[in-house]
């Protein structure tokens, strides 16, 4: 058994990878897509098309709205029918471009062949520019624009690129499937990012519950003849949240990213394996980020109704649900993402975005929580917290509305992993409260910093 893991906290939920054996299938084209302008971290993108315009697959339809932002491309060919606010997953209004699908005509220059392209451009700037032009963002959850992450600020140097293949959230299997089905492309994507970062080594972290993925990635290194290259596979202990950036850095590099610091301050750049595949497609195939893989899963679905779909980004969730046979009997909650960090789907008419990773059906067995009772001061939440926080104390400060106390006790370091909630015998809604308080404290910190600048 692997001993490599992060040192503090963590929990061991059942991994429930029910869809793991289902190969990636192509989701059919829907009649209409709604492409969100806010599907990456940072400023929303600004539309550059107008109602009535014809667009092709891969055409730029929105440009970055700031330094931290990303290009958005049309996932389909057709006619722009509307540019208007539409409700996102949580029911909040977000600007979307509506495109009626007509045929499937791609922009010239996008290589749709299966031919593997392994030549790495000599100039890092060429790689970074291509990644930016293709709208690549982190697909591990944070959706941070990849070209920014691959451009460390002056004075900072990447000493290690860590590829996150842990997929530690229960139920999710899209990363697992791409490691089985596209391992060479992922490795070439990693080599491109290594080049962009100045030639640092790369470690691919995979949890021990995915031995087939470890085998496939190791075989791909051999088949590429890359045994002498600075890339290796690290098998990590199965422990949630192994895929958290700070936890991966601690596990692989034995370094701590201190409060308020960034991974690059510890010499690390962490990218998801899905992002690496997107980088490969952008740089080597000229293909913008218009597709991703999403898992449809849950214990309520029989094996044949579990899916890993290659979908066009902007397809409505309701279309995916329909294609997968509709909502199963007994479903009481629909989640986008895993059960630990995912978000409840309040609006099934919402559209998929670059970071969409799953449609997860939860039944009563998975969701019914006993009523919260008083804290019994057992300390399990603090033992489970991978950030070394004291969730019981944060909960008390939340209830008192004590923002100063929350900041002094580092609520801003919370990674919203849910380990505290998972381990609390009193069923106290720790994560919900802490998440809201964290938002308020970060808002106050930013306001203070802005006032200082004036
Ligand atoms: S959600 Fe936040 S407070 Fe709770 S265990 Fe995770 S990091 Fe700690
Ligand atoms: S786990 Fe729950 S009951 Fe135990 S100390 Fe934390 S908040 Fe209190």
Overview of the structural elements:
- With 454 residues, this protein is of the alpha/beta class.
- It has two domains: 288 residues, 3-Layer(aba) Sandwich (Rossmann fold); 74 residues, no CATH class.
- Helix content is 29%, strand content 19%.
- The protein has 14 helices and 17 strands.
- A six-stranded mixed sheet has the order 1-14-13-17-15-16.
- Strand 5 and strand 6 form a beta hairpin.
- Helix 1 crosses helix 4, helix 4 packs across helix 7 and helix 11 packs across helix 14.
- The model has no long low-confidence stretch (mean pLDDT 95).
- Bound molecules: iron/sulfur cluster (2 copies).
- The site of one iron/sulfur cluster (SF4) has 15 residues, from helix 10 and helix 11.
- The site of one iron/sulfur cluster has 15 residues, from helix 13 and helix 14.
Give a quick rundown of the structure.
The chain has 454 residues and is α/β, with parallel strands linked by helices.
Write down the overall geometry: globular
Sheet of most strands:
6 strands, mixed
CATH superfamily of the largest domain: NADH-ubiquinone oxidoreductase 51kDa subunit
Give the names of the bound compounds: iron/sulfur cluster
Compute the gyration radius: what is it?
Answer: 22 Å
Cα(first) to Cα(last) distance is: 55 Å
Helix content: 25-40%
Walk across the major sheet and give the strand order.
1-14-13-17-15-16
* Category by helix and strand content: alpha/beta
